[in-house]
Amino acid sequence: MAILITGGAGFIGFHLAERLLEAEKKIVIFDLNIDKIKEEAEGLILEQGDVSNIKSLEEVFEKYDFTDVFHLAAILPPLTEEDPYKAFKINVEGTMNVLKTACKFGIKTMIYPSSATVFGPDRKPPFTEADLHDPWTVYSSFKICTEIIGSIYAKNFDINFRAVRFPIVIGPGRKSFLGITPYPTQMVEESVKGKPYTAEIPPDTKLPIIYVDDAVQILINLWRSKDINFEIINVDGLWVTAKEIADGIKKIIPSAEITFKPVKNVYVQQILSGVKKQKEEAKYGLKGKRLLDEILQEYISRSSDEK
Known about the structure:
The protein is of the alpha/beta class. It has helices at about 10-20, 55-65, 80, 85-105, 140-155, 185-190, 210-225, 240-250, 265-275, 290-305; strands spanning about 1-5, 25-30, 45-50, 65-70, 110-115, 160-165, 170, 195-200, 205-210, 230-235, 240, 260, 285.
């Protein structure tokens, strides 16, 4: 018996795989890019494949006796906006393929990370899964689509589909160019390298962040819960300004050079016009527990070790 993690070579997926492996679970990673983790994947089973190819998925399901699936395979911004057709095949068709194959092989539970971007930049807290969705990017529109597909499968087939809407997840291993608002990652990564960094955002920009270890724990807690059938969970992050992140980094790396300049990217402008109005959003969801100093200390320490 084994657990499947699609996209397990990615940022959150690999952290999840390592955590489940610590719990003495048999973990199979299904990913197109397994070569990048081969040296670090001791104890993990690696299968190269594409979720948009259902035959490839079926072969893996036939090979192993899966009990549960964590479906993390996806293309992220800005790549979704640059090539929406390719992103559709992975993010939407791929999710349908995983759901269809999981049902065919009698899988009971599928855990799926969605995104708080489904509410758009002007969402008003507090909110629930019943609130108005306002996807404004290719990525967020695909997240809404796959949530709906998952809910249909949950209602019509015997599969327990559970989705988690995460805020910005940061931590070691995240590619610094990914995401619509990648500046928290870029601030840390460039400072660890001893390079100056200029963020194209106002210093009072406030966004919610969550550390990758906490995001992984939420996925595991949701998977372990015996009281949830179909569910979409909202996860609030720690709301911090860009200046607070920069100041926190400088406490740990006094030589860090972080400056700010006006926003040029229209998508980022749209985000910032909405999120600066946001306050507490945890009323109907889960929340990361760490303080900013703790997040940055852990992040910088581990990033420095990996240099």
